[in-house]
Amino acid sequence: MQVLKFGGTSVANSKNIALVKAIVSKSIANKTIVIVSALGGVTDLLIDSAALAASQDKEYVGILKKIEERHIKTIRALIPIKQQSAILSKVKSELNTLETLLEGAYLIGEITPKLSDKIVSYGELLSAFIISEYFISEGLNILYKDSRELITTNETYGKASVNFPVTDKKCRAFFKNVSEKIIVLGGFIASSEKGNATTLGRGGSDYTAAIIAAAIKAKQLQIWTDVSGMYTANPKIVKQAKAIPHISYEEAMELSHFGAKVLYSPTIQPVLTRNIDIVIKNTFAPEDEGTLITKAKDEKGKTVRGISCIENIALISLEGSGMVGIPGTSKCFFEVLSQAEISVVLITQASSEHSICVGISATDIDNAVEVVNTAFAYEIEQGKIKPALAEKELAIIALVGDNMKNHQGLSGKMFSTLGKNNVNIRVIAQGASERNISAVIDKDDVKKALNALHEQFFEENIKQLNLFVMGVGNVGSKFLEQVRHQKKYLKDNLKLNIRIIGISNSRKMAFDEDGINLKNWQKALEKGTKANGAQFMNRVNKLNYRNSIFVDNTASAEVSKTYHHYLRNSISVVTCNKIACSSAFENYSELKRLARKYNAPFLFETNVGAGLPILDTLKHLIVSGDKVLKIQAVLSGSLNFIFNNFNTESTFHDVVKKAQEEGYTEPDPKIDLSGVDVMRKILILARESGNHLEIDDIANNSFLPKEGLATTNNKAFFASLQKNEAAFQKLYKSAQDANSKLKYVAQFEAGKASVGLQQIPKGHDFYNLEGSDNIVLFYTERYPNQPMIIKGAGAGADVTASGIFADIIRIGNF
Ligand code: ADP
Ligand code: ASP
Ligand code: MG
């Protein structure tokens, strides 16, 4: 004999029930017991309707209607018309009784646990009946049995305890005499010795199946659900989770106890004593191997087998000098909780015995505080113990594995992973079995924590980087294109998986929690919502992904003001926008401080020399103990391009226009031509060399006529260039007469910085600088005479995008 249990999703509708039939039909070589849950979601609806009725809210009628419709629709879809009427009338009569029960609760304005169980039991009663009728109509040799007649419990309504001797006897007697090949029963429901309906706890259909499997010593217990086994973590939260092929009873029990809902945790106990294997299979992918749960341990398996979590946890702690050395305080504490039927999920006690802290279900916390304060009223009044402290909105995450006890350093790895991702840990507990290490964290951090731990323990070091990209113009769009092309290479070679979760331009913003498809991000953006910097920020925060990076490809002052916020939330910032780093020194250093404090890199390599590794090289010089004495540089790719192309045959205006069109200038070209852009760059270089400098400290001998400097928009600016052509030609001619070229040079020496147009003679390092190239000469203590030179393409969307990309990879390797 074998027992097959199908969960709520597997029997949620007629289409799924047909899949169930196909699976059952394949296994009837053996006598088969089929246990079914209520149609998916129906138990919740029943609970909701009961609660509404009890609070005298007429809305319960609407929910009852919904329940009725679901069942009737399923019957109509599954059963041939001729046979429908008998089944419909039976179901309607059951629903009438249910209605009467709910009406009773509504009239009295109250619901007892006993009545609640009676109401809730209709989910399984109806589903088992309908499914068995469907099987009959399909010609299967089946018998329907009301499981309340077999499973006997006490009267702890909501989660009754099974009377195993009685239940086992009834099951054996019944199944011995059944001649049909398939027996269909509802899970979850039972009855007390007095004949009252009881239930086995939420998710309890698994347990029904295990109780019956154990009683009749079935060959195997199969749990058919909506995922392909027990996974390394909940696959609905951790996309990278994988099914565990083989796991021991103890490990499975621990994982399910700590929240792996795929198996109701009491399920294992009955089959464990009889040594019956459990297989977890997917109704929607029956060919998948699933998970085998046996007595034997998988010695070759990973040390950490799975990570699970229980949401909606609260902590209650008791603290005070009165607890030290006084025996019985903890005993009393646990006794009162137990008397109030509050189950304790996790315990920690400080070694000084000064405090004791337990994790319980959030729904019990108010009651717990009350009973504990009442029990310790005398000690509290005497000031020996403080009133119980409650903390809410928490969750437990746990690493589970039989072999964990033999491995050092796992908890260190766990906590450093959480720390790196800015997940605050409230309490740590290690199970006495050493089969689990658990931590209590904020509820909002669960997704991030599970994914970060999963990455650390299961993903062969593939690190996921989650990017939020602001600005998809010249640089931004090139950047997205580069990511698309390199994605596979990075995954294969650097073990980095880059996902773009959010993008925004000045009009629209769009998010995709699974990563935006980079083949048509434009479409995704068009479909997005109206752009809003604050909302973008909030969304990034709410998503709370590990390894999140905010990428600023804009030139916007507004956007640069949001970096603080990102860094404070441990979100790294990568930017080609120079405004933040060239703003007030205080702001620049505050951003760097936040980056250190919150362990979130703040990288802006592209602020100087686009993709050239100038800042990174400088950083390496400084950290290795070198000191910068002097910097000389041509830092404006745009100005270099302009002066390299400007001559007597062209006009200054046209050359600037061309530079703008080819993406070599800032969106506002005046920023380049006025020297402001170069001032910002030399300022950043000076600051990164360890100097406290402000932008106003930099001397700027601008070559632009005053009139051009005073313009306030691009049109006026270009008009002024046209008007002053003669002045520009004069500059050119004077350089040519001196056998020199015009270069816009930035200098820093002895704490002083300056920028300006210079005539560079033949033979100088700067003379042959081509196109939009940049060059930087670092004179340092180690390079006092022959400077360290970095030279190459210093402007353009492509190289800037590649510089952004390089910063992101730096973070990936961080
Ligand atoms: P059923 O209705 O079939 O009993 P449940 O909803 O009770 O199904 O359990 C299956 C669900 O358990 C999965 O859809 C998944 O979201 C959740 N789950 C949580 N942790 C795990 C895990 N470690 N492995 C697999 N599923 C898990
Ligand atoms: N229908 C019950 C519930 O939703 C039992 C089960 O599905 O296992 O909790
Ligand atoms: Mg379940």
Structure overview:
The protein is of the alpha/beta class. The protein contains 30 helices and 30 strands. The protein has an 8-stranded mixed beta sheet with strand order 3-5-2-1-8-10-11-9, sandwiched between helices. A 7-stranded mixed beta sheet has the order 21-20-19-18-22-23-24. A 6-stranded antiparallel beta sheet has the order 13-14-12-15-17-16. Helix 3 packs antiparallel against helix 4, helix 23 crosses helix 24 and helix 24 runs antiparallel to helix 28. The longest helix is centred in the first third of the chain and has 28 residues. The protein is elongated, with a radius of gyration of 35 Å. The protein binds adenosine-5'-diphosphate (ADP), aspartic acid and magnesium ion. The site of adenosine-5'-diphosphate has 21 residues, from strand 12.
